[in-house]
Design a protein that fits this description.
3-demethoxyubiquinol 3-hydroxylase activity; Ferritin; Ferritin-like_SF; metal ion binding; mainly alpha; single chain
Length: 192
């Protein structure tokens, strides 16, 4: 299991009836889409920088994202959540963002990582607040998973900063543009 977190599968109707299905559906759908997009970003970065000195650190972060995607794919089945219809778009957009930022060099790729991971960890914090307000005990396992993944995203954010993200060309403009894209992707993926 990703991050050492396990999940009891909700395979019975009785278990599913005890949750706020619209809230859980939205959370799982958008998190699956986000982890899918993150995988595509790292794939794009590896396509450009995989054989450079940045390759191993990008690969390490990508491996964690693969675990996150696997877990949210399992949760989609367990909670009977449909994926966003935008996955084909996120497939292309994520790869283009990853490859495009990597074409700016290691610093550009790390700036992208900082921008995306900051947006995602903030988004995970918002979900944590929502689930705690709903019922922290009822959503204990889902909360544990989201908290672990948020911590992983914060670690990726910090790795990006340690690897000179802020020295990327037009860092603040790049970061702002990527974060606006993330907010739009989150909004759309929750709903569509």
């Amino acid at each position: 299991p990703a991050g050492g977190v396990s999940l009891r599968l909700c395979s019975t109707r009785e278990t599913l009836e005890g949750i706020n299905k619209p809230v859980v559906d939205r959370i799982i759908r958008v998190d699956h889409a986000g982890e899918y997009g993150a995988n595509r970003i790292y794939a794009g970065q590896m396509a450009v920088l995989g054989r450079s000195s940045a390759g191993p650190i990008i690969q390490q972060m990508w491996n964690q994202e693969k675990d996150h995607l696997k877990k949210f794919s399992e949760l989609m089945v367990a909670y009977r959540v449909r994926p966003t219809v935008l996955l084909p778009f996120w497939n292309v957009a994520g790869f283009v963002l990853g490859a495009g930022s990597a074409l700016l060099g290691k610093k550009g790729a790390m700036a992208c990582t900082v921008a995306v991971e900051e947006s995602i960890s903030d988004h995970y914090n918002s979900q944590i607040r929502t689930l705690v307000e709903e019922d922290p005990e009822k959503y204990r396992e889902l909360l544990q998973i989201i908290k672990q993944f948020r911590d992983d995203e914060r670690e990726h954010h910090d790795i990006g900063l340690e690897h000179d993200a802020e020295a990327a060309p037009a860092y603040s403009v790049l970061k702002t543009a990527i974060q606006l894209g993330c907010k739009a992707a989150i909004f759309l993926s929750e709903r569509i």
